[in-house]
Amino acid sequence: MSEVEKINGATVLCRALKEQGVEYVFGIVGVPIIEVGMMAQMEGLKYIGMRNEQAACYAAQAIGYLTAKPAACLTVPGPGMLHCIGGMVNANENAWPVIVISGSMDLDSEQRGSFQECNQVAAALPFAKFSARPNSIERIPFFVEKAVRTATYGRPGAVYLDMPADFIRNSALSDKIQWPVPAPPPPRCTADDASIKKAIDVLFHAERPLIIIGKGAAYSGAEASIRQFIDTHQFPFLPTPMAKGVVPDDHPCCVGPARSRALLNADVILLLGARMNWMLHFGEAPRFNKDVKVIQVEIQPEEMHNNVASTVALSGDIDTIVKQMNGEIAKCPQKFVFSSETSWWQSLREKIAANAKSTQNQVDEDSPPMNYYNAFHEITKLLPQDYLLVSEGSNTMDISRTMFMNNYPRRRLDAGTYGTMGVGLGFAIAGALWCRDHSPQTRLVCLQGDSAFGFSGMEVETICRYNLPILMIVINNNGIAMGATQDSFDSAQEGDPTLNLMPTFLSPVSRYQEVMKAFGGVGWEVETREGLSVALKEALATQKPSLINCRINPSAGKKAQDFFWLTSKI
Ligand code: ADP
């Protein structure tokens, strides 16, 4: 019989996290959680000290999305915990698992105006699937198991655990600690057979079918089953931004470049893990055909029929359901292939070709100064086959989505469902660790606008401290959407800048590469395509943290669009 020993709460917490399969902890330590950070490492959890809790929370949730297992975000009480709320909302809205753990005051100091006192369980509640404080050191593992299970089962999301300082500091007897069995991976639910048959029937009778692949499909790991479905039946498919690569962008059935036309004219849509929210224009006219039939595949039953009534609602796990469909179809003696000679395919191909031409016109525009298109053209020419792209900043993100090919699933992280700017450096740090530990052939590229870089710029120090081989490219137009020219900036500064400087302006003399150099990384500033190409070759050849400050025309923008983004007006 093993001897009874005393174990402090910090150790119990970290051991429980490890037992439940948590691999990474991102955070910023301070009273009373310094011991937790230290114990995390002693228990074999990888601890990454960040510079802002919000970025730490973004990093932890990116791990949740990439691995389907939650990482922890560790913070001090009060301000530290509250800084995380933006991160928790972002995780919840994107349906990504994350566990936020914050220290709080000693239990008997509650309601006394204690240092950094805050009702954190209540603060987290609107933005988390589960928010609780263990009621004893002995029961910490019970709460950790419940937190991990709740974060990952059903629609994934954020959870919160509150850790009073006396629980962290004090000890319990080892034979009194309740260790639950680690939560098994989430159940992969099937849909009912009748609905599977109906879905196949509706889809195979469509005149203008379309498959929309959402990031729920990427999270489900459904790439092989969806690929088999598309390869067999040759239906056009459209990935949402973070679902790019579930089926490679260069697949002949990808109609990403004909997005508006595909959405507008499809008569049947198979919706695989995407919500009919603002990103898909609520599924409504004039962006969609008003009579469109939707076959919805979704893990959260309450999401069914949201904004658009689905003709068939398949509730369960995407990978499992697509396999069910593949299995049902395999029983038919005749193989169904959607003909590439249909007027639907012709119309989509025509739009893809027109789009390629107008993109090429932008690429061919005279430079310097560069625009987004010719800068991205230079970059995409040189990138390796397998890269994980973090992309944010309005135009930088949107235009890169159309120009950067994703060949593999879960290789794009961006502002996502919540349109959150400032996620970039946290995502990049998590992504680089994931590449290092799980996919060494993948290169991390972080492409940001200069405004987006500013939200968490000090995380460059984190990148350099952990020596992460991140290639950052700041697409610098001196502003938010409409940037400052040197002349307009100078004349605005002549009077009172608070009255004269446009709210969209940022400094045109910013040398972001120097931030990277200040912490030991490598930096370049480029203004021409040739300069960008040379810098990029050098950056790709080194494993050091790198930053290219890529100056583009301050008034560069998107090419003409069929619809205004974010509105349904033509
Ligand atoms: P996108 O941003 O790509 O449009 P959304 O985040 O709007 O995607 O939607 C993703 C959807 O996928 C969510 O409604 C989520 O509940 C669902 N989902 C997540 N994991 C799974 C899964 N394994 N099986 C089915 N649906 C899933």
TrEMBL record:
Residues 8-122 form the Thiamine pyrophosphate enzyme N-terminal TPP-binding domain. SUPFAM superfamilies: DHS-like NAD/FAD-binding domain, Thiamin diphosphate-binding fold (THDP-binding). GO terms for molecular function: 2-hydroxyacyl-CoA lyase activity; magnesium ion binding; thiamine pyrophosphate binding. The keyword RNA-binding does not apply. Its cofactor is thiamine diphosphate. Residues 196-324 form the Thiamine pyrophosphate enzyme central domain. The keyword Metal-binding applies. InterPro entries: DHS-like_NAD/FAD-binding_dom (IPR029035), HACL1-like (IPR045025), THDP-binding (IPR029061), Thiamin_PyroP_enz_cen_dom (IPR012000), Thiamin_PyroP_enz_TPP-bd_dom (IPR012001), TPP_enzyme_TPP-bd (IPR011766). One of its GO terms (cellular component) is peroxisome. This is 2-hydroxyacyl-CoA lyase. It comes from Capitella teleta. The lineage of its organism: Eukaryota, Metazoa, Spiralia, Lophotrochozoa, Annelida.
